[in-house]
Design brief:
508 residues, four-stranded antiparallel sheet, mainly beta, six-stranded antiparallel sheet, 5 helices, globular
Length: 508
């Protein structure tokens, strides 16, 4: 509500009025002021006394639902409906609540009858039905990755010789990006081929993707980690080279090692970070490189790696990198393996140029143990030792701690969608499951075994979640589900015999 703010006012408070002729033209102005010598001024009619900002904020606690210029009538109408919103729960001894309230007895409600309530509830009443979606009719060879960034779906896969990156606005029609063919390296222009690609990220105003590049010079062949980037989603991809390293003589081994690190590109608001691996005669090392700009070498005058800083971090094999949004904590999951000593650590820092600290999440285990990716859910970060069936919870703002969630089944990958976590599990016998939970520490609400070969990182957009299917030897597919159309379960709240819990299901 707003007070009127006149500009034509005399010092004594008289306000200008216009006197008009019958044809609507202005005759003259006069200034009027009440001069009735009242014995009582009375309560003025203004914003402060009718509907102040403080009162409006009480009536509409959520700024998004508050009218832009609320009136007294708006406020009375809102109060007549009650201050409770759809999805609010009350415990009362009364039994005469309106039909807008339903008992909290775990019943199922339909999207058709209670659309507003279903939009608030999180737990579906049955396992999701997953639909297969063909992304490309080409035959894939693994290395699938999926992401939803800046309003677009991105899908990567590789065939027998090259990596492919596709983009879609709707997840149905896909356009393939053209890969760069040449690159300056050591003052020489080389023919290049992108042989593996991770998920595309949107960061620093760029679409960025970590890739493995094959460079050919005469009879020499080398591999290096590159970064593809483009400012426009349907624009030209360019390439930068933060790290060059011939890891193995075997291409299949190189591709497999690269595929083991899926979360590897991040932007902290100032710098791009890329996680990689270096190989010497004896060991592999986790390496992190960072830069505040991405550049494409255009000739020998531009030095290699001119903008990139950083180097070896640990004597461990990197498994993944994660940046927690809440406090900017950089976490790097690594496997330490020397002789008969094995352990898995999460290294962490808030300043990649500074010292790293670490927290062990397993102790001493087999070198063959397999870990899933970082998953953030309900303010905590989880990671799983899949081979041993254990889930760890990682917390801490400045120093990390880990806690074993012994009652939580392990999973490979997960993503938050529609107020729940959707996780993918793949065991050693290649059995694939999808697990759904509203609270991961309380156990999984549903577990479904899939016939589709989904075994990679899910990506979510609103109520839609997609999971890339393993495309080895088959056409490239995803499976997807839209939770917006699921019937939902009302919470089951038990009270004593003198009261009952209700949830608001409809507007009144």
């Amino acid at each position: 509500m707003k007070d009127r703010q006149p500009t034509q006012v005399l010092a004594n408070g008289a306000i200008r009025y216009g006197f008009y002729n019958a044809d609507g033209t202005l005759n003259h102005y006069e200034y009027l002021k009440r001069d009735d010598a009242p014995t009582e001024e009375g309560t003025p009619l203004n914003k402060a006394n009718l509907l102040s900002d403080a009162t409006a904020a009480k009536i509409w606690p959520g700024a998004a639902t508050r009218p832009e210029d609320p009136t007294v009538n708006d406020a009375l109408f809102k109060l007549a409906k009650g201050t409770s919103e759809v999805g609010d729960i009350t415990i009362t001894a009364r039994t005469d609540l309106s039909s807008a309230w339903l008992p909290c007895d775990g019943r199922t409600v339909s999207q058709e009858q209670y659309p507003s309530l279903c939009a608030v509830l999180r737990t579906p009443d049955s396992p999701a039905i997953w639909t297969e979606k063909t992304v490309s009719t080409n035959i894939g060879a693994g290395g699938d990755a999926l992401s939803y960034e800046n309003g677009h779906w991105f899908r990567t896969y590789r065939d027998a010789t090259s990596a492919h990156i596709l983009v879609s606005d709707d997840g149905e029609t896909w356009t393939e990006w053209a890969m760069p063919q040449n690159f300056w390296l050591n003052s020489t222009i080389l023919s290049t081929r992108v042989v593996a690609a991770h998920a595309v990220k949107y960061c620093g105003g760029m679409y960025v993707c970590s890739v493995l590049v094959l460079c050919a010079k005469s009879s020499e062949v080398s591999y290096y980690r590159g970064v593809l980037f483009a400012s426009d989603v349907f624009g030209q991809f360019r390439i930068d080279a933060p790290d060059r390293q011939v890891w193995y003589n075997s291409y299949s081994k190189i591709a497999d090692d690269f595929a083991g690190t899926t979360n590897d590109v991040y932007w902290d608001g100032q710098r791009f970070f890329v996680l990689g691996t270096q190989q010497d005669s004896y060991n592999r090392y986790a390496v992190i490189r960072y830069t505040n700009q991405l550049t494409s070498k255009s000739g020998p005058a531009e030095s290699d790696d001119q903008a990139w800083t950083g180097g070896a971090l640990t004597n461990d094999t990197p498994l993944g990198m994660y940046v927690r949004k809440t406090d900017g904590m950089i976490m790097i999951l690594c496997m330490y393996s020397r002789s008969t000593e094995y352990s898995t650590n999460v290294y962490y820092t808030k300043n990649v140029a500074g010292n790293l600290s670490n927290v062990s999440i397993t102790g001493t285990e087999s070198a063959d143990e397999k870990f899933g990716n970082f998953v953030e859910f309900n303010g905590a970060v989880y990671i799983c030792d899949i081979d041993y069936g254990r889930t760890y919870k990682i917390t801490g703002a400045d120093a990390l701690t880990s806690a074993l969630m012994s009652d939580v089944s392990a999973f490979n990958y997960g993503a938050a969608c529609a107020g729940q976590i959707v996780a993918v599990y793949q065991n050693g016998t290649n059995q694939r499951k999808i697990m759904i939970a509203e609270d991961i520490e309380q156990g999984w609400d549903f577990t479904a075994t899939l016939s589709a070969a989904a075994g990679n990182q899910p990506a979510a957009a609103g109520t839609i979640v997609r999971i890339p299917c393993s495309s080895n030897g088959a056409v490239v597919k995803d499976i997807m589900h839209n939770f917006a159309y699921d019937n939902k379960k009302i919470p089951n709240i038990t009270t004593d015999a003198r009261s009952k819990a209700y949830i608001k299901a409809l507007e009144e």
